[in-house]
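Before relying on records like the one below, remember that each one covers exactly one chain. Contacts with other chains, cofactors or solvent are not represented anywhere in the record.
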Amino acid sequence: MPKRERIELTRECQPGISLLSVGLIALGALSVVYRDLAYTWQPVPAFHPGRDVLAIACSLFMIGTGVALFFRATVAVAVRLSLLFFWLGCVSRFLT
């Protein structure tokens, strides 16, 4: 059997990852500035206690994972955390 070569994915090969990270950073920054959840997470009721804190925490998480996607050393952790974050967002939308 031939030996499989490991394919290194570089930033030049993955413009989608760069666009995702820029989008995460921008959406997180807007959420911090307006202290509100992004439109995709609006099912959280306005009367929910701690909604502002949840909005800031989610936006800082999005900024952090967006920045981590730019660095090769942290991209694996950032992808896993982003997957969990988006999965929880999808599940919470279906439960409401």
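The chain has one domain: 16-95.
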